Amino acid sequence: MDPNTRGPEEYGHDGDGQSSRQRPPRDPLTPDFGQHTPALARTVQLVSGDFLLTVNPVDGSEIEVCPPAERPSRPEKLTPAERAEVDRAARPPVPPGPTRPAQPLLARQDEREQLVRMLARGRSVRLVGSPGAGRTSLLDLVAEDCADLAPDGVVRLTGHRRTPADLLYELFYSVYGAPLHRPDQDELLGFVREIGAVVVLDDIEFGGTALDELLDATPECAFLISATPGVPAPSTESGIEEVALGGLERADSVELLERQVGRVLTEDEANWAGDLWFESEGLPLRFVQAGALLRQRDRLRAGADAVDEYGVFEDAPPVDAPFDTPVDGPFGTESGGVETPLPSLGEAAGPAPLLASRLSASARATLKFAVALGGEVPHQAHLPALVGDTHADAALGELTDCGLVTPVGSRYRLAAGVQAQLEAAGYTEDVQEGALAAAQHYAWWAGHPSVTPERVAAEADAVLAALTVLVPGTTPPAEGEESPTVQLARTAAPAFAAGLYWSAWERALRAGAEAARLAGDVTEQAYFHHELGILALCGGQLDRARAELETSIGLRGALADKRGTVAGRRALALVSDRSGTTPGVAAFGATAGEEVPDARYEESQSPPGGVPAAFLPAGDATTLVTHRASSVSPSSPASHKGRGGVRGFARRNLVAAGAGALLVAVLGTVVTLGATSDNDPDGPATQVGPNPSASQGLGDDSLGADKAEGDDGEGSGDTGTATGRPTDPGPDGTYGTSDDPTPTDGETDPSDDPSGTQGPGGGPSNSPTKPPSSTSKPPTSPKPPTETETEDPTDPPTEEPTDPPTETPTDPPTSPTDTPTSSTSASGPASSSPAETTSSASAPQSTDEGSPSSGSDSLI
Questions:
Q1: What is the largest CA-CA distance in the chain?
Q2: Is 368 found in the same domain as 302?
């Protein structure tokens, strides 16, 4: 577990021992002050249900719908060899140093055989006993006897601070091989229904309905559950058999004490053991601790020559001295063969302070850390760094041999009653300092690149215990410093998420959010709320996810954290997509007026300026309709059926715009065919109305547009310039084009409507607007254009009308005339971006005489 000891091929180390990363030379006088290359942020990508989750410890986790190519295959069950490895990891590590030989379990043979018979019949059993009755030792023996009963073997779980959901996921990972895959609730229930195993569940903390749900979810499993009398009982419908585990008989207790001491008891010791049996009701733990007291007494009586060769007791204080009293000799004033009396009955009833006073300094320091962490004993690999002694890992062996700690799952905790005894002896004086030192150490360790998320998750109980102690007393740090509580939660939470221990992830996030609030760290507070929203989204809690994400977006918007805001917006859009509701204002307005990098694709909105105009049939003019880009209201409805929310909204707008353009093209074709096939000489198709259409290009005056400046009138065909626009009839009654953008009187100022400006008839107008000019006014009697449009050779010759038409043509124009005519090579769908185009479904047309028509194919 030492993060500084790395393998030869890990993290930039080649097999030949040479580093592949160039390091700066170190000063020989200050070798420890070398420059260290900052480690990259550790990101982990995993699949949770139908989501692809990227755990990002920098800006916040990112979540999206998992692509089909990223979905993992169906998990397969582990092989027997792999199950054996999982079972080995579920047991506590063996303490370093010399260990005492395993003692046989006394007076438990009947209970052992009874439990095995029940499990062999497929019945679930609940073993109830007081703390210290030896439930864990009995469960270990029964698990060995049931190794071949079930097809999936024996699965060992711990119920200490575990919920039913935690136990189901741990059961799943104990039988199936599913790395970086966390199935959702329905998938999980489907997998665990297929598990047939004997589940040994120690130290369960729930019962009643919660236990019934656990049993119902695993119908093919037989459970052996141990609990204390204070845990709620299962319901009567659960069908669990219950076996009570009491204390030992007096003779068995004396025999256990003799096995612990390694000799036959004297008469005084036997009487002392009888009094202890009556006081403790025969709990085996008390006699294990009493045996440790007698062994220490024997060493004291033997004198200095009995000092352990490993030096365990070399600095032990006197028996009657406080636990932290310094000593000069190996055993204080009572060494040297002086007779040592038996401990009193009170000392034997609460032996923890007396036992601790005779242990090494490292063992006593370990007990201080355990008391500060609420009874959680740090892993033996962390003890040298915490205690400051390179051999401090041997302290775990001392504590185990004395019965002061007991295994809980794959870790160790203070034994029953030891926490209260040490607190009464004064071990709580430095609780805050001990928890702070542990927090600083774990924050450094959890963030080290050589530490895997699984190892951090295995130490979750100690990390969460340090947060529980430190969070209530969190204060704003000094300028330029970070709060150690916030730093620990910030470092450990992503590791818990990547290690698939999500209940610990949630507890770390909530503790970190509270610590950040007390410390006044808004940046970290926004991060924790973002992660809580991601966790709620993965769990299907959409309302909670929305509240957490909106809080995070608001905080990050105030801090101008663009990247974090983008991550929050994406997650919030996914929440809205799943819930079928419109994203809140915070999803779009957190950074109003700011351009967020790398976010345009996800945050595209309906294009305000139109879409590329459709190509009309041959012979008709085509133009490209564009509008001035305008901001879209943040409250615009977004899509909730696609994956991207706002992205899907913009995509559907473009599809609708394309459909509208196609409809306009078809309409234009029908109108053109109808107009050209009419042989009526008085039909509107042979007349030139007051609203001329734009020409196709230079050199084509067949539609009656005025010629460009400098036209000699001899059929040169130059009817206008590329930048001109239709103007109102001049004093001579003619219509022409002009480079002057002066509008007519019928044009109005632009409105606030993002779809365009209002025309004279209430419809949108796309022409740029300026104040009317006094030199260009519409005449009272418009004259016909100077040139008529080219007649179709198949139509009979018609007489040119001498009077201007009294009515506007009823047929809609075939091309838009409200924008400048450009070259047809520049017109097309590819010449306009979606951000400059809009839909055409709601474009009203102006029918007032004398005002330019917006055109039926103008797309708004």
A1: 143
A2: no
End-to-end CA distance of the chain: 65
- 116 with 229, same domain: the answer is yes
Which of 185, 219, 246 terminates a domain? The answer is: 246
Residue showing tokens 């029953």: 416
User: Is the separation of the CB atoms in 838 and 609 below 8 Å?
Assistant: yes
pTM over 0.70: no
Query: By the 8 A CB rule, do 443 and 492 touch?
Result: yes
The count of other CB atoms within 10 Å of the CB of residue 548 is 27
Q: How many domains does the chain have?
A: 3
Answer yes or no: do 238 and 253 share one domain.
no
The domain boundary residue, chosen from 208, 229, 246: 246
**What single-letter amino acid sits at 209?**
T
371 and 286 within one domain: no
654-691 pLDDT tens trace: 556 666 766 666 666 655 655 555 455 554 444 545 45
Find the domain containing 151 and state its range: 77-246
Whether 49 maps to a domain, the answer reads: no
Cβ pair 60, 534 in contact under 8 A: yes
pLDDT digits (tens, 9 = 90+) for 114-151: 999 999 999 999 999 999 999 999 999 999 999 999 99
Give pLDDT tens digits for 3-32: 444 443 333 333 343 333 333 344 444 344
Residue type, 328: D
Q: Helices marked H in 263-330 — which ranges? A: 267-280, 284-302
Residue 804: alpha-carbon gap to chain centroid: 73
How many other β-carbons are positioned within 10 Å of the β-carbon of residue 860?
26
The DSSP string of 57-100 is: TTT--EEEEPPGGGPPPPPEEPPHHHHHHHHHHHSPPPPSS--P
Of 358, 337, 334, the C-alpha closest to 347 is 358
154 and 227: one domain? yes
* Phi-psi region at 765: left, alpha or beta (left = phi > 0; alpha = psi -120 to 50): beta
